[in-house]
Structure formats: structure tokens, C-alpha cells
Amino acid sequence: MKSLVVSVMVLVAVLAVGARVDAADDARVAAAKKEGKVVWYTSLELQTSERIAKLFESAYPGIKVEVHRTGSGRILQRLMQEHQANIKIADVVHTSDAGHFVYLKKQKLLAKYTPAGTDKFPAGFKDADGYHYAFRATVNVIAYNTKLVPAADVPRTWKDLLDPKWKGKLVTAHPGYSGVIATHVLALVNLHGWDYFKELAQNRVMIVQSAVDPAGVVASGERQVAVDGGEYFFYQTKKKGNPLEIVYPKEGVPLVVSPSAITSFAPHPNAARLFTDFSFSRDVQQVLADSEGLYTGHPDVKYPSDKPKPSELKLLTVDPDELEKRNEEIKKRFVEFFGA
Amino acid sequence: MATPPRGLAGRLSGVERSLPVWVLAALGLVVLMALPLAWLAWISVSSERGATLAHYREAFTDTALQKALWNTVVLAFWVGLVSVAVGAPLAWLTARTDVPGKSLIRALVMASFVTPPFLGAFAWVMLAGPNAGLLNKLWREWTGASDALVNIFSMPGLVFVVAIYTFPYVYIMIANTLALIASDLEEAATGLGAGRLTVARTITLPMVMPAVVSGFILSVLQALALFGSPAILALPAGFHTITTQVWSFFHFPPKTETAAAVSIPLLLATALLLLVQKRLLGRRGYASVGGKGGQRRTIRLRGWRYPALAGCLAVMACAIFLPYSMLAKAAFARAWAQPLTRDNFTLGNFSFTFFEYGATRAAIVNTLELGVMTASVGAGFVALLAYISNRRLVPGHQIVAFLALAPVVIPGVVLAVALFIAYTRPPLLLYGTLWILFIAYLTKEMPVGYAQSEATFRAIPSDLEDAGRILGAGRLRVLRDVTVPLARSGVIAAWCFIFIGVIRELSASIILFTPNTRVMSVVIFDLKEEGQFGAIAVLGLVMLALTFATVSLVQAVLGRDVLGVRE
User: Can you list the alpha helix ranges (DSSP code H) found in B97-204?
Assistant: First the structure.
């Protein structure tokens, strides 16, 4: 069923995009086609990333999207290792750690490019100097297994998770791997201080890496409650019929804004620009909202009715500069408390 | 009379033509290992203001690293013990008793030997995760208990999963030794009135003791160097081992110097262990061991035959049956933790892995390319080295043998750190290409291939070659017409051993890959970090299929199984 919905959306998107490719774009497309592919370093969930890639490939036959999906932390590591060895692979970089983009911009590894249609994006979704724009956003939430957690016990606040009754029943993702989680940790440190995590670690929390993995762990019943994780993937997992429910804690939910940028050394710059424009188009942004459960900066995007709209949530935001500065502190103290 | 001798000049030119080949091979060996290790040592003490011990101080005063070190010691020690506890009885049963199904047991030990440990660890997450794990769910259903039977995310869980794929090392050592010990001494003792236990204690045990200890040491070395299993089982439980710790030093911002400073002592520790093992084996002066001939008495188990078989099969259930079935189930399931009902059945994991997930095909191609390339170059190289050292062709041939076996002491992670340091800078910028992986694999698999080739040449008596030489053929001609045909099957076996080693390699690859040079093991690890169970199971099955296809090839070529004992 879901795949049918997706294919219909693909079709709609293709038709819509196809209609807009007019004569003026021909030269751009021809240049991109000559390059033949665009290499996308992305931290967006693997299958979601592959779907976006397929959308682009059907809109622009002849240009392949090479998806390299891993966690935000791993993406930065690879980019910098490759940079040090003078290897140029990545065209478009997209992670969930806004601090990384502050750093990459400082290192002069980003190209200035403003995707079409982003002028109406809200302030938190674009770089003042025009180097990176937020491709998507999500929030961190609590999620629990509805078969294992009785209604009366459901945690309603972040601090509810500190109750010793949860010992051995919780799962967290890792800020060293995931930008979603790095953002989350900073937001909650600003709200409750490091003591919150020190106490949380007393509950012997299982540690996974990606912010999408807690959804699988909770759905399988390996742990009862996820103490963080990208809401969009909890939503997707729940829609697939898994016994999983999402809690939007009362203190507010950390907003994760995930930038996208073209590298300054992109081997396929034309394809990179075409892909970037495509991914910021209303149709693709609408696909993100509809089938993937993501939020976006696009003002015209409509959200599904079975989940809260961003405006209905109390959002906790973090400053990308602060995220960049405290990157090491976040990882170091997390490891200190949780052990790995 | 056969061919008339060709005269002195012809013989001399034969020698001279072959000389550069030997020298080149020996030189290549030095460069392959010496350059990266020299860089490793240098980086570990280098700073902007000259030599320093600061990196060592920094590394070893860090409490997190101290904990990781201790965890590694605990892990390796227990893996060694458990491997002996499992491997020794199994070896004795198949070598000396009338336990039924011997060839089945041997086949299964071999299967455990070639199973990539990280696939086993991954499967055991699904079997014995404390809550969703199948075995724990069944346990709760049957007993009504609320606690888990086993928690795989723990040190005992890790020891268990590592040991079930490590005990074959002990098995091989002991089974091969037992096969060479004739029973006359044991029979003499029995004839003199010693009871069965006394014979075992005073005769058999002392003779196999060196094999037991060296099996123990080999297991410890395996456990020390393993990356995948700790990453899958220890990290979720909140603890590191030394390999995962070194790997994490490469996370941004990278601490390459610290990684080097940790690597050097690790290298020294493994070298020391192997030295001990060599001493132990070298000491065996027993006339009974190593000799051929003599009858080996079969011990009758009587009523214990079937319980003994059951015990062997129980071990194999842990290493093979359960994990393989779990992988197969996960490959066909939407939700791995749910029963495989019609609603839960899907081919989606296969279509996603092969048709939607772009990384799969490139990774399979890279893996096969590297496997074939490393195995071909490697098998040729080790055959040459083994020939040189076995026939004592150059002065210092002992050094050649030593260097060919030396990489055994280099854990994959350490090798990767060394290669990363050496080849991310001029003059040889190999990082980002398949070549750096090729070098890593070649170096890492050399000892296994060398051991196989050395055994091959040892088995070919040099009289035939001497006869050829006396008849006037040059060394290269003799090599081609006499030695190579005789050594062919041994070389093919070495090829296969290297190939199997390459396609499962993770601990060096995980540090050396770039997006364009990903191999299957790395893709599986990436998928693990994201929790994509279905796709991992599919790729895991592909990897196992490749492995077992290769194993059958070796067996067909050698006419025996890969564990190295002739029945």
C-alpha cells in the first residue's frame, strides 16, 4: 500500500517537475547530463534517501544519484579525511548537524549557492551568507512500545525517563554518529544541564548509533522506550503497523534543522546544482512531508493530519555556532556517562 | 640415458636468471611491512617539536582507554579458555574415539572456522537480545520467568559469540597433533596396568599440551584483534575494547597520533604471545609427535557415543544452525522479531538490497575484485617465498620465512592505522583507491597463505628437483616442469584461503575505505549502524554463499577438508 502511495507521488512529482523544465533550463540540464551523476553524502534515512534519488533520476533521466548514506558524524569524518588526502568525491552534503556546516564553511569547503524557492524559508532554515539551506527538519521525541508499556506508565516528560523503573528498558542513539542526537543532547543540556544525562545513564540505557535505529529497537520489543530519535522515522515505523507510539514531551521537543550544501570542490557542479534545486522544489518538499513524515522550511508544504504540525509544538532550538563549538564536549561527556 | 647434461655455462646462467626474482620478492616483503610500521612508530612519537612520549602518556593515562584495555584482556583470556574447553574435547572425540558422524562434525567445525564472526554476532543479537531475542522469548514463554536467559549485550555474551567462531583454532592444533601421535606409548602404559585416566593424564595430555597451549594463544590473538563482534555487542552495552577504541580515534576530530601510540604496545603484546607459542611448539622433542606411522587406537565410547554426538551438535547449533537460520529468517521477514507468518513474509529485503540500494553492487564488485586480485598475487607471492625459504635459496632465507609470518602479530586495526598514516601522504597516495585495501589484505593474509605453501613444499621432496638439476635443467626450468605441477593443488588451496580471508575482512577495511572503495563487510557494518536488519541478512547470506563456494573448491582440489588433517 505504502509503495503505491509513493509511486503515485513519484508520478505526480515527475509530471510537475517535467512540466517546469522549459527551454531556459535546457542548457543547465544538458551540462548536468554531461557530468552524468551527482554524489550525495546524506544522513537522511537510507530508504528515504534512495527514494529521493529515484525521484530525481526519473525527473532527469541520464543523471544518476550516487547515495552515500551514513551518520552525520561519519560524514564529517569522511569529508575531512578525504580533504586531507586531497580526494574529491562529494558533490552535495546533507547532514543533521548544523554545526558541521558552520565548520565546513569556515574551512572553505562549501560553495555559495541559493536553491530556487528558498527565499521564503524561515530564518533558521538558511545561512545568512547563502552557503547552506535546510533540506528538511525533524524533532526529537520519546517513543514507546504500546504492547509493553501500560498507558498509566507512559513517560510524558524528558525527566520522567530518569525514574529507576526504566532501568534496562531504554534505548538511545549516539551523538558521535548522529547529528539529530548531537542536536538533541545540546538542547537538553541547555534545558536540564548535564546532570540530566548523568542520571539517565544510571538507567543502563542500550546504545545504538543512528537516530533511526531506536525505532527498530522499540518496535522489536528489545527495549520499551526510546529516549531520543528522529520523529520522522518513528512516524514511518508506526505507519507500517508496528506497536509504537510517539510522545512529544511537555518541556518541548528539540528541533533538528538539517542543512544541505554543495561542496566547493564538487566534481559534478552542474548536476549538484540541478539536484539541489530539485530537492528544494515544493513537490519534493511535499513528498518529504507526506510519505516520510519530515518537516520542511517550505511555507507552502501541507502536513499530514495524523501528526502535529510544527506550529503546534513547543520547539527547543539550538544555535548552530554553539553546536559547532561544543561538538567535542557533547561527544566526550556522553561517552563518559554512557560508557561508549 | 636421459637428456645429456648441458654443461657448466648453461647451469650458471640458470642460477643467475633466477637470482633477481628472489631478491625482488624478499625486497617487496620488506617494503610491504617495513614502510607502514616505520611510519606507525614514527607518528606515535612525533610532534611539532621533535620526538615525544606525550601521545603515549595521553593515551595510557586516559581512564576510558584503560577500561578498554582491561576489557580486551578479560575478553581475550576468557575466549582462550572457552575455546580450549570446547575445541579440545571435540578434537579428541573426532580424532580418537568412535563417536558417530565424525565427518559431519568436522564439516561443521570447518563451517564455523570460515563464518565471518561479525555475521555470527549480528545473528546472535536477534537470537539472544535480552528482550526481543528469539531464545529469550521462548525461555520466557516456557518458564514464565521475567528475566532473560542470556543477555548477549554483555561481556559473557561477547566471549560466547567470539569463542564459538574461535575454537576451531584449538580444534585444528589438537586434532592435527593427535593424528600424529601413535598409540604405542598409550598401549604400553595400558599393558603395564595403568588405568584409562592415568594413561590420559601421564601420556596423552603431556603430549598434546603444547598444542593445547598454542591453540589457546591463537584464540587469544584472534579475540584481541577482532573488531566487528565487539562493535556489535559491546558498544550497545556501553563498553569499548581496544579495537573499537582505536577505530573511534578516527572519528572527527581524528586522533591519529593517539591511535598510533596505542597500536605499538598492542603490536608488541601480540608479538610476545606468538613468541611464547613458538617456544612451546619448538620445545616438543617427543619422538612420537611429528613422526608418521604407528597405529592409533580408537577408544570405544559405548553408551557415551550418542551423548557425545549430541554435545558436539549442541556446540554447532550455537555456531551454525541457530545463527544461519536466524539470518535466513531475517532476510525474508518484514519484522525480524515476529514469527515468519504470511503477513510477515517479504522479498522486499532482496529487492531493496539488490535493486534500490545503490551501494550493494559496487561493494560486491569491489569485494570480488579485491578477493581475486589479492588471492592471485598473494598465492603466487607466498609460493615463491615458501619455495625460497624451504629450499634455502638465498642467504638469510630464515628471515624471509620470519617476515612472511610476521603479519600474524599485526591486528587488522593496527595494520590499518599504519597503512592510513603511510599512504595518505606522498610519495604514495593510495588512500581512496582499492590499492590501499589490496596492500592491507595482502599483508594480512600472507601468513595463512605462507603456512599453506610452506606445507606444500615441505611435502614435495627435493630429490625430484635435484634429479632435474643434475640432468642439466636450470632452476626456473625445474620449477616449471617439476615443482609447479607437484605444488599446483597446494597453491590453489592457498589462493582459496586468501580469498576467504579477504571477503570477510572488516577490521582494517573499516578504517581504510572511502565511499568509492566500499567492500561488502563495510556495507554490512554501515547498515548495522543504521539498524537495517533485512538488508544485512541478505548481504550476509551472499557472503556465506561466496565463502562456501570457495571452500568446496578447495576441498575438490585438495581431496580433503580445509582443516588440514588427513583421515
Answer: 102-114, 117-128, 134-143, 155-163, 167-180, 184-191, 196-199
Helix (H) or strand (E) holding A142: strand A142-145
C-alpha B298/C-alpha A103 separation (Å) is 71
Residue B300 CB contacts under 8 Å (≥ 6 apart), including other chains: B97, B98
Q: If residue A197 lies in a helix (H) or strand (E), which one and from where to where?
A: helix A195-201
Contacts of A215 in chain B (CB under 8 A): 531
* CB contact (8 A) between residue A221 and residue B132: yes
Q: How many beta-carbon pairs under 8 angstroms link A with B?
A: 131
Total residue count of chain A as it appears in this document: 340
pLDDT of residue A188: 98
What is the chain A residue with the closest CA to B530? A210
Say whether residue B433 is in contact with chain A using an 8 A CB cutoff.
no
Q: A95: which residues sit within 8 A by CB, 6+ positions away?
A: A41, A42, A43, A72, A75, A76, A101, A179, A258, A259
Assign A17 a pLDDT band (cuts: 50, 70, 90). low
ipTM given for this complex:
0.92
Q: Computed over its alpha carbons, how large is the radius of gyration of chain B?
A: 25
The stretches in chain B having pLDDT less than 70 are 1-18, 21-22, 26, 30, 282-296, 560-567
Query: Hey, which residues does B299 pair with through a beta bridge?
Result: B97
Mean pLDDT, residues A247-268 taken together: 98
Give pLDDT, residue B18. 63
B351 to chain A: which residues are within 8 Å by CB? none
Domain boundaries along the sequence of chain B: 18-46+65-558
- Cell readout for B221 is 590473538
A226 bridge partner residues: A143, A171
End-to-end CA distance of chain A: 40
CB contact at 8 A, B100 and B305: yes
Q: Do B358 and A335 touch (CB under 8 A)?
A: no
Whole-number Å distance between alpha carbons of B108 and A325: 54
Q: Containing H/E element for B524? A: helix B520-530
Q: What are A146's three cell numbers?
A: 504500546
Please give the helix or strand (H or E) that residue B154 lies within, else none. Answer: none
- Do B237 and A340 count as a contact with CB atoms less than 8 A apart? yes
Q: Say whether residue B335 is in contact with chain A using an 8 A CB cutoff.
A: yes
Q: Quote the pLDDT of residue B299.
A: 82
What is the nearest CA distance from B272 to chain A, expressed in angstroms?
29
Chain A hits for B153, Cβ within 8 Å: 206
| Rounded distance between C-alpha atoms, residue A41 and residue B478, angstroms | 56
- Per-residue pLDDT of A209-225, as tens digits, reads 999 999 999 999 999 99
Average pLDDT over residues A302-323: 96
Beta bridge partners of A92: A40, A262
Q: Is residue A304 reached through a cis peptide bond, with omega within 30 degrees of 0 on the bond before it?
A: no
In chain A the domains, ranked by start, together with CATH numbers, are 2-136+257-299 (3.40.190.10), 139-254+314-338 (3.40.190.10)
Q: What is the pTM of this model?
A: 0.92
Taking a C-beta distance cutoff of 8 angstroms, is the pair B511, B417 a contact? yes
Q: Do B530 and A46 touch (CB under 8 A)?
A: yes
Measure in Å the smallest separation between the Cα of B168 and chain A Cα atoms.
31
Q: Are A217 and A279 in contact (CB under 8 A)?
A: no
| Minimal CA separation from A218 to chain B, in Å | 9
> Which chain B residue has the Cα nearest residue A173?
B236
**β-strands A225-226, A142-145 pairing:** antiparallel
Who among B236, B337, B529 is closest to A206 (CB)? B236
Q: Quick check: B238 contacting A, CB < 8 Å?
A: yes
- Residues B250-294: pLDDT tens digits? 999 999 999 999 999 999 999 999 888 878 776 554 444 444 455
Assigned CATH for B18-46+65-558: 1.10.3720.10
